[in-house]
Amino acid sequence: MTDSTAVNKTERIAKLVEHLYAKKPEIEPARAELITESFKQTEGKPIVLRKALSFKHILENLPIIIRPLELIVGSSTIAPRGCQTYPEFSYEWLEAEFDTVENRAADPFYISEDTKKRLKAVNGYWKGKTTSELAESYMAPEALKLMAHNFFTPGNYFYNGIGHFTVQYDKVLAVGLNGIIREAAAELETVKPGDYNCATKTAFLQAVIIGCKAVADYGKRYSELAKEMAEKEADPVRKAELLKIAEVCAHVPAEPARNFYEACQSFWFIQQTIQLESSGHSISPGRFDQYMFPYFKKDIDEGNITREFAQELLDCIWVKLNDLNKCRDAVSAEGFAGYSLFQNLIVGGQTKDGMDATNDLSFMCLDATKHVFLPMPSISIRVWNGSPQELLLRAAALTRTGIGFPAYYNDEIIIPALLNRGIPLEEARGYSIIGCVEPQVPGKTDGWHDAAFFNMCRPLEMVFSNGYDQGELVTLKTGELSELKTYEDFKAAYKKQMDYCISMLVNSINAIDVAHAERAPLAFVSSLVDDCMKKGKSMQEGGAVYNFTGPQGFGIANVADSLYTVKTLVYEQKKITLEELKKAMDMNFGQGFDEKTATEVALQVAKAYRLEGKEVSSALLESIITNVLTMELSAEEKAHYEEIKNMIDDIPKYGNDIDEVDEIAREAAYYYTKPVETFKNPRGGQYQAGLYPVSANVPLGAQTGATPDGRLAHMPIADGVSPTSGRDVNGPTASCNSVAKLDHAIASNGTLFNMKMHPTAMAGDKGLESFVTLVRGYFDQKGMHMQFNVVDRETLLDAQKHPEKYAGGLKQVTSG
Amino acid sequence: MKEYMNEKGRIFDIQRYSIHDGIGVRTIVFLKGCALRCRWCCNPESQNYDIENMTVNGKVKTMGRDVSVEDVMKVVKRDLPYYSRSDGGLTLSGGESLLQPAFSSALLRAAKDMGLNTALESMGFAEYSVIEKDILPYLDTYLMDIKHMDPMKHKEWTGKENTLMVENAMKIAKSGMCKLIIRVPVVPGFNDTEKELLDIARYADSLPGVENIHILPYHNYAMGKYEGLNRPYSMGDAKIPETDRMEAFKKAIERETHLNCQIGG
Known about the structure:
The complex is a heterodimer. By secondary structure, chain A is an alpha/beta fold. Chain A has a domain at 132-160 and 448-570 and 657-729. In chain A, the strands form five sheets. Chain A has a five-stranded mixed β-sheet. In chain A, strands 1-8-12 form a three-stranded mixed β-sheet. Chain A has a three-stranded parallel β-sheet with strand order 7-11-13, with no helix packed on it. In chain A, strand 3 (378-383), helix 18 (389-400) and strand 4 (407-410) form a beta-alpha-beta unit. In chain A, helix 17 (360-372) runs parallel beside helix 18. Chain B has a single domain (3-263), classed as TIM Barrel. A nine-stranded mixed β-sheet of chain B has the order 5-1-2-6-7-8-9-10-11. In chain B, strands 3-4 form a two-stranded antiparallel sheet. Chain B contains nine helices and eleven strands.
């Protein structure tokens, strides 16, 4: 399929997008009120039933709306891009931020005085009942201390639902929710009174039936609404559309989809309602081009639908994926900036038999992203040796627009990585991506993929401070610097600090895991993930076939360059001592002396923030300036520290295809990935490491002092597995080669390689072809993921000045 | 190890992921030293064979280093995955590579031994016997500059007459040993008229086997390099040929000859 078959964007899509982005998104109180109302009435019942009954209550009473010109319907809020709240997970942060959430830099939300009042009235009920409170009570004091000192942040699941799964959309399309209800009923029949799990399994299956019925009925509410609106509609074209919507929603998701339109609508109801059941994000459509294709093909073959209309339906879904929204606490909002829900949708790749899976929809999905040009879905493409060049060229052309999509994934490393986790070949070939970069088997996995972010630079700081942070012993004593006689001693100390911090990371995550099992078992989503119904328990209690926990480490580039500094300058060339290096870092390499430099450093931090598309609060700026200012140095000292920094800047860095440095990067990654995979989670699954920061490298970098790689205090930590920005100077192939030298297979929760490309490098056919070569060449060397920021300096600066011009357009890459 | 790997030469840069100057993804090795002194030269640091200093972004950088073929191939080899995905490979540029014939020959040979596509960007400033013996056996694509057909104007703007190079073009074409592509820098005041360009194109068209001609618009990105080398920039504020004019030249060439004309490398 070539460009000539691509269908143009319709006027409807342009209008839907315009409508969606006309106003600042708004927080609505209805869901919080409904869940509270329901919970008050069900006290004493099993938690899984209480959750299902509250879900039913929400879906029966939540105000519904069909927006102008919509063909695919189902909105969680009346306001476009609005959000509901989820007090059952946490609520105190929102109340604390009531007066700032509207004007904060990262992802602001409008909230009316009436909404504040209504939320306050119900939030109080949840005091002592939230998952976050229970989780915190389960955590070891040492782990809480490390969190307070910013070693890691498990904030994602600490304050919210889990999300991060792909359900069996294909099954709902094929049998309808009524089919799933029948399956649950049949499973109930098999439960014997004497079974060890009779009580829990019975309650769970009853909850499944309640949940599925609730969603099926929710569809019917839209059918009724469409019918009412059609009666009042004067325009005959729109009237016909509304009557069609009424017909479609009367049928799905309760019954099997009979055509492509119904499949699209059924898909959407599932995607939307899952996100009303809990507040987790990264609820990923997965291999949409695969499970939707039979419905598309049948309609096309039988002449029931035109390619143009099918494309418009896809485009409508793409718009709807941006209609869902989520308000995060201020700190998390910075870490996940961009209103993103990380709904990852992936095309291409292989069939379970290992044949190429590309079809017409694979191309049309890429075109849909080009048409709507919005942050959702996080569109991705699976690349393998047999991927058709036309598909990759079409993807490259999308990358060239600067939208930051698609992300490219390498089957040739991800499939072996999954096999290594005990997943059978056919299922591994069917993998899809969750959220940012996390591979898993769709419909069978509870992956806890975004369990935490772990700053690998902080344990390195602890080697220099012998475990002390801000005057307090927070980790282990690994010896005074004078005791670290050799590079091996130094590495051993780092390893000990890492091991300790990782064990605390696991402690905090597992505490949260238990809290979700006890307080937030979700029957509806669990009914769409194997083997929850057979096992008779929710995903949160370990019902899925595959259970993982994936916390992310980041800072590979900084740690690698730091270790290389210590190895060469301290131990091999003996140009500086560890003590001198520590002093230089404490003094921020002489950069933090007078007000001017203090402000300069602070402004650099601010600039880095803004480059990431964020604003910096004046309080943060002031605290950074104060920190820098409190240092006092003489001119000689200052010159001395600067000399040390120059010495560091002059030695080779990760990202330049220099084996000696890259091997250290590989080793540095192992200090994180290897210990992580030795741990187990409460659902009976294994830990697996990821190597990516989303955008947590910026806020967590702001909490990290200067590092031995010459990075100044408070500056961002390097992004994902990418080289430190500006330090890779040998061109894109050299950067790719360096990154490919890491062991990506062991980081089976995903690695993230973010690359900047100048538009001229992608100009013309040759630019696109060479770009595809670059991706293929990186993948041939067993790289896992690549994503590109194609933007010139001028556009970037303009976007900072006039963010409104780029609403939903220019977005920060990755983060996704 | 093959002996030619020890051959030494002088280069001033190696550029990886070059997507121009040949097919696929390429690594370009820039050899130092040139016989011409083209006024518009965009690599003035290539002209002197002597190692010299150039100020780049306020820092003094040494331009030029002596390396062995093995040293160069160590870098070239690193991008094998990209060459094999795109039929790419090694391109020699300069300077005029043919001023270091043994080194150029050894580089091309080493690349061929590695299975790479080879290209040479050169004016053909050498005795044909040298080109025939040292270069052509290891070369896939010759990107040959013909800047002007009038020997005197050529001399005025580049310091040398064009006779040797124009003759070499014919000999290389007749040898049939490599693909020959003719390249013309379109320089304001020098050759940016339809007549002058057509003269070159007609000659290129007369070369057996030549199918493609590239016309490369003059640019002034190199102005800063002249400053960094403390040399005057003799193009002054010469205007960059507009896209429309380049398109018109392309049309004229394709109308008047059998050649495919491409704008840019």
